[in-house]
Fold this sequence. Notes:
Layout (H helix, E strand, L loop, with lengths): L4 H11 L5 H14 L7 H8 L3 H10 L3 E3 L5 E4 L2 E2 L5 E5 L2 E5 L4 H9 L3 E6 L6 E7 L2 E6 L4 E5 L3 H6 L1 H4 L6 E2 L2 H8 L5 E5 H16 L1 H13 L1
Antiparallel strand pairs: 1-2, 2-3, 3-5, 4-5, 4-6, 6-7, 7-8, 9-10, 9-11
Helix pairs in contact: 1-9, 2-3, 3-4, 5-9, 9-10
Amino acid sequence: MKPTLDEISAGVIAAFPKLSAPEQRASLAAYRLLAKGRPIIAEQISAACGVAQDAVTEMLGRWHGVERERDGAVVGFWGLTLSATRHRFRIEGRELHTWCGWDTLFLPPLLGVPAEVESRCPVSGQRIDLRVGPAGVETVRPEAVVLSFLVPRESEIERSVIESFCCHVHFFASRQDADQWVSRRPETFVLSVEEAWQVGIRRNAAQFGQLATRELNASRAAS
């Protein structure tokens, strides 16, 4: 049986790290610096958010949702990545990628800018396009697009968020395609784009507190 939206949101919130105020500022800075399309280092994050460099270095070493190059520079951070994936994520002319379909929905409210999303249905191969703004999903093509989803477990997320969660979360061109895919994968289920957006907003609010609320309110006022 598919969990309720409250149950899904609670499970997602419980699985992802709880952030202190300095960690919230550092995380948001990391996202926004990485969105410029280049690898980032602790010194840059520190300068952008006002958290001591040693503290930022410790955070990056402790967090498990960090993708690095051989020299230690960060190229992926909790869903946003410079590495190619099936989920293209264009911001202000820069082509980035995300680890899963859901990442494309919760990231624009944190980044404060709209994103053009391009993905492919794993079943039909059909191209899927979305425009996701900071205050909501603006366009979806085809209109029948849905997502597969899984309520993550904290222990598995800590082991590998990509292998335990992201590999289960994709866009599908139709409900029929999604139902076919999830029927072979226990514990997965189907969400509408709006439902997945709502889960993302709740996750942002729980993890980033007033920072997330401030960004969302600013985006809605500007729209």
